[in-house]
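ESCALATION

Customer reports they have been waiting on this structure for their group meeting. Please prioritize. Original submission:
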Amino acid sequence: MSETDATAIARPAWRFDRPGDEQPSLREVNSSIAVPNSGVWFRRLFAFMGPGYMVSVGYMDPGNWATDLAGGAQFGYTLLFIIMLSNLMAILLQALAARLGIATGRDLAQACRAYYPRPVNFVLWIACELAIIACDLAEVIGTAIALQLLFGIPLIGGAVLTALDAFLVLLLMNKGFRYLEAFVIALLIIIFSCFAIQIFVAAPPAGTILHAMFVPSSEIVTNPAMLYIAIGIIGATVMPHNLYLHSSIVQTRAYERTDKGKRDAIKWATTDSTIALMLALFVNASILIVSAVAFHGTGHQDVAEIGQAFELLSPLLGLSIASILFAVALLASGLNSTVTATLAGQIVMEGFLRLRIPQWARRLLTRGLAIIPVVVVTALYGEKGTGQLLVFSQVILSMQLPFAVVPLVHFVSDRKRMGALAIPRGVAALAWVVAAIILVLNFKLLYDTLFGIG
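Update from on-call: job pushed to the front of the queue and completed.
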């Protein structure tokens, strides 16, 4: 018997296999990036570096900025522990998404299609599409605000200009997946550098920062206003479409499709995403720290919007380019999120529906659905309405989170479908606890937002 036949027999069965479901995820780039089978560890890690950084984009997108700014301005460094906690949760969930893709050869959307009945899959698909549109809404708003702050372009004009990024993504994809990853990493370096400079100038007390990050304050639970923002930080952290995205793009590596090769790939993919998400931790923590230094205790505790922060940063930090660095990082964040939202949309549509449409058409459709409400709200209510729309996009994302987290944890803990690569029972228990915490907090955020609490 050949190795291929043996693998096919050994592979765990899926309940609803249908003809064509074995088609690889993102087939145009699947297994397109070579990885060395031997050599120094750095060469092997470098070969797997990329997917984790693309995923990390979702953890520092414009939707996170408002909650981090408000947390630092109102409560100083106290909520750094919440940023650390939410980042650890994200590291676990993204590691599980990578494991699912590598172990099964399916992305999360394909796995759902192969297991759940059609009505359930339809609901999951709709939920995920709404999440992608909500994420895109935050990207449009963030990019439009950045263009206004940097170049004086009106919000409506900036929102319309964001449609052009569809052609940027198409160009990069045609050049090869490594070019796409390089573009994302380059923008991440810009974001990192902008905040590194601001942190250096702000010179926050290192001891206080470390204490706040690793030792939780009881006030987080006892103070309703602080708890509301803490829930918002967690709610804005884990992006549902990121779990679909990661389970697909890890398969772009040409690792051996054997149990040994998959175990090795899981190890390196997990290392890649963990390192990348620590970068996201630095960026989110930096937003809160800079906000705390500039606004908390200086009479500006009410700063919660990006435009306010831009106007006040330079004079309060005493650095003339601080506001410019802030806006440049915001623009890079918005552009970066565009790439990952485009790919996630393609993965979800192909995985759930086996429907392929041109990438430019997919991108313009999603971006168009995001641009329209931004233009309408800005025209009717101005900048304040845009800020409220940004908050609303995060609420929509919170509502969609159960539709990605629950199937993911379900699949990776199921030995009938993951075989020897299923997660251990201890890790599965931890994953379910994390999923439950995130879901409860997200539903509370939704409830509080709808009923005007906080």
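Sent to customer with the following note: The chain is about 75% helix and 0% strand.
Escalation resolved.
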